[in-house]
Amino acid sequence: MMAALRKALGECGLHLNDPKSLYVPLVPRGGNLVIPQNTHDGYSVGIARATPAMVWRYLGLTFGPYGIRKPSTVSMMRSIDRILGAHLTLMRKVEAIRGHVGPSFIHQLVLGMTSVKELQWLDRSIRKRMRILLALPHDIPNAYFYAPVADRGMGLMEFSVTIPQLRRTRVAEAKRCLYNEVEEDNDATRDERRKARAMRWHQTTDGRPLRAPGRWPPPLRG
């Protein structure tokens, strides 16, 4: 089998890289394809053989013999906790989470198998830590955390909203490239999403001054 595979790849100008190749033996069992626990099945293909517990990383994602592994939102929160525990000023911690740590999760969350429930948990956990870090009132609206900085919001990314939008955009672009299918774009543009976040924040506040946040003095940088 491997000889035929190598020959077919050679005809296409490709070469099988044995050190980076993996043989995944799948056998039918109970209506599913599983990897047998017995690793000595008497069948050798000349490359490494996968075990049920084996994991590897490719393009920043963790894979197993049965497919892509779900990214751990708990480990993501550990990354944020390390920033919060660092010897930085308050505003530098907020900027690190808003501009660096948070966006670094996008790749894994978009391509991974994270559910909306887990994304909502991630959003709640980040909001909770921000309230403690900045000593914010407990009843401050959630919209404040996601409103743009220019509108006097915190400018954090709302993963439970952003990640599903990015997934839909990715699938639609793949269909357009592969099958020439153009789907109706129901997602708002970037500017429309920014205005919607700002409007949601303004609608949760009372008092006329918040209707014109652009006239407020800039916040102090700690």
Verbal overview:
It is a single chain. The N and C termini lie far apart (65 Å). This protein has 2 domains: 61 residues, no CATH class; 134 residues, no CATH class. About 3% of the residues have low confidence. With 222 residues, it is mostly helical. It is elongated, with a radius of gyration of 24 Å. The strands form 3 sheets. A 3-stranded antiparallel beta sheet has the order 5-6-7. It contains 8 helices and 7 strands; from the N terminus they run αβββββββααααααα. Helix content is 44%, strand content 9%.
Structural class, by secondary structure, is mainly alpha
Helix content: 40-55%
Q: Helical stretch count?
A: 8
Shape: elongated
Q: Could you tell me how far the N terminus lies from the C terminus, measured between alpha carbons in angstroms?
A: 65 Å
Low-confidence stretches: 207-213
Tally of extended strands? 7
Strand order of the largest sheet: 5-6-7
Main β-sheet, in a few words?
A: 3 strands, antiparallel
Kindly report the average pLDDT value.
Answer: 82
Strand content: 5-15%
